[in-house]
Amino acid sequence: MSTITKKTITILCLGCFYFLFSQEMKKQEYTTVLIDFKDNSLAHYCINKSMTKAEFSFYLKGYETKHAREEGVRKSKNGLATSLGIPIFIFTLYSSTIFSPKPEKPEKLKTLEGINYITLKEFQSNNYQCTSSVYIIHKLKDGTYLKWKTYYLSEE
Fold it and tell me: DSSP string covering the chain, please?
């Protein structure tokens, strides 16, 4: 078999693989969560001035209050710690551009009509189970919304 034929077959196989993979990615659903910046389950959020990068951190269920977190630390000192030796009380999502040099602004929405979303309380009650992509929506002062594509970075 000639080199050109081998390369052609390889390119066709890679093309088919890429096409099938991209089709599978389109089928994957995503989780959309509506948050309120006044919610006590929101531990921290940070959005840069150019509105291209964001980070959203939420308290795990049962650790929304300072007292609950202090109690968790006390219990960890009695042998109930994580593998790192530190109790973890926060779940964090990062915008898709947080580690990217290519800035990308979130989608601006005029209304939530037609958007299938869950509340932060529902997300928290489900132990933050989600798809690989999570959209975070929050309301702006002018009544519109921003929709951020975010990801969870696991420590594994």
Answer: --HHHHHHHHHHHHHHHHHHHHHHHHH---EEEEE-TT-TTEEEEEE-TTSS-EEEEEEPTT--SHHHHHHHHHHHHTT---TTSS---EEEEEETTTT-SS--PPEEES--TT---EEHHHHHHTTT---SEEEEEEE-TTS-EEEEEEE-----
